[in-house]
Amino acid sequence: MQRILITGALGQLGLEFIKYFEKSDVYVLATDIRTPSEKLSCEFEKADALDKDRLDQLVKKYKINTIYHLVAVLSANGEKNPFSSWNLNMNSFQNIVEISLDNNIKKIFWPSSIAVFGTDSNLDFVSQNPSMSPETIYGVSKLAGEKLSSYYFNKFGLDIRSLRYPGIISTDTLPGGGTTDYIIEMLNAAKNKSDYTCFLSEETKLPMMYIDDAIDAAIKLMSVERKKLTISTSYNVTGFSITPSELENQIRSRGFDIKIDYKPDFRQKIANSWPKKIDDSSSIKDWEWSCNFGIKETLDRVFS
Ligand SMILES: NC(=O)c1ccc[n+]([C@@H]2O[C@H](COP(=O)([O-])OP(=O)(O)OC[C@H]3O[C@@H](n4cnc5c(N)ncnc54)[C@H](O)[C@@H]3O)[C@@H](O)[C@H]2O)c1
Fold first, then answer.
1. Which residues line ligand 1 (CB under 6 A)?
2. Which pLDDT score is estimated for 136?
3. pLDDT band at 107 (very low <50, low <70, confident <90, very high)
4. What is the pLDDT of residues 256-300, one digit of tens each?
5. Model-level pTM?
6. Which of 86, 170, 183, 272 measures 20 to 30 Å from 294, CA to CA?
7. What is the rounded distance in angstroms from the CA atom of residue 195 to the CA atom of residue 284?
8. How do residues 171-197 score in pLDDT, each as one tens digit?
9. Could you tell me which of 135, 177, 188, 168 has the C-alpha nearest to residue 303?
10. What is the residue with the minimal CA distance to atom 11 of ligand 1?
11. What residue segments make up the domains of the chain, in order of their start?
12. How far does residue 181's CA lie from ligand 1's centre (Å)?
């Protein structure tokens, strides 16, 4: 039986993973530095991912054999304090690796991000393995984590699996301070009939993915035999690419009369160094990834 530890479990992705696992036959221990505002459907322990001894005790106590390590400071928040962001992103990652080696953990899921790319990466259509020069501390830490994943796999056989997520769209759980957060904010503004000021310019095209596809991709990747995986850093995945003005038009075409202003801030510079479109053919080939939610299906779900 899978016995899963989730770190950063109260964030945008973590709460959705908990919801998904509720329907399946696995044991889940959720952990976070915060306490839940509502009762969760699984066990919860408060734990700082920088406290290796505490995590080690929990892994032993609950006989954990799989870890979903979701703790991170995201792209926009990371720029406010690069030193503490690097500290959290890298040292929590290293803690999980050491604990996994000490406790014979079978598999780890650790999300990377499209932030690993940069303006050298042919941003119009980013391949699996282009030149990468990330421009945020978040991207630098994700790229370092990818390289370490590959290193630990080759050195110790440690099975870390990873996806380079694009912006993830969920409206039940709120985003955690990334550069693609505008899409959720604009959708929520439409639902709530309020005005919205977008922090990116109208024509900023970025890749996105609906939350159900994000969870589905992780579960699929975690389920395949390791020998099918040809990549030990992180796999490109994507849903669809869209600009804020295209999203605005889509929202209007569904009858929402929303007033949107555009006032790009520091996040515009980050977005300018991120991909417009992603080539996810390696994921399709290696583990039969397929995306179910385009913009239409996503908006059908968001406004249902
Ligand atoms: N959401 C996205 O659009 C997106 C895109 C690409 C990659 N990712 C990656 O997916 C993962 C999860 O992202 P998310 O959007 O759920 O993030 P989030 O910011 O919503 O959640 C992170 C959680 O970590 C917790 N946390 C912070 N510091 C901690 C600590 N020291 N110890 C324990 N918990 C701590 C926070 O309380 C929060 O609940 C991250 O690795 C992120 O880089 C997310």
1. 7-8, 10-14, 32-34, 48-50, 70-72, 74, 88, 111, 113, 165, 167-168, 175-176, 178, 180
2. 97
3. very high
4. 999 999 999 999 999 999 999 999 999 999 999 999 999 999 999
5. 0.98
6. 272
7. 39
8. 888 888 999 999 999 999 999 999 999
9. 188
10. 70
11. 3-166, 168-208+238-302
12. 13
Task: Give which of 272, 243, 275, 276 is closest to 260, Cα–Cα.
Answer: 243
| Cβ neighbours for 131, distance < 8 A, ≥ 6 positions apart | 118, 120, 121
Strand 112-113's sheet: what is its strand order?
Answer: 112-113, 163-165, 235-236
Choice from 6, 13, 236 to test ligand 1 binding pocket (greatest atom count within 8 A of CB):
13
CB neighbour list of residue 24: distance below 8 Å, 6 or more residues apart: none
pLDDT in tens, 137-172: 999 999 999 999 999 999 999 999 999 999 999 988
Protein residue closest via CA to atom 24 of ligand 1: 8
* pLDDT given for residue 290 in this prediction: 97
Residues marked active site are found at 138
Residue 7 Cα to ligand 1 middle (Å): 9
Crossing angle of the two packed helices 211-223 and 12-22, in degrees rounded to 10? 60
Looking at the domain that runs over 3-166, which CATH code has it been given?
3.40.50.720
pLDDT in tens, 16-61: 999 999 999 999 999 999 999 999 999 999 999 999 999 999 999 9
pLDDT of residue 272: 97
Residues 13, 209 contacting (CB under 8 angstroms): no
Kindly give the number of the ligand 1 atom that is closest to the alpha carbon of 48: 32
Residue 23: Cβ within 10 Å count: 8
CATH topology for 168-208+238-302? UDP-galactose 4-epimerase; domain 1 (3.90.25)
> Beta-carbon neighbour count of residue 157 at 10 Å?
9
Q: What is the pLDDT of residue 174?
A: 82
Give the pair of three-digit tokens for residue 301: 């779900």
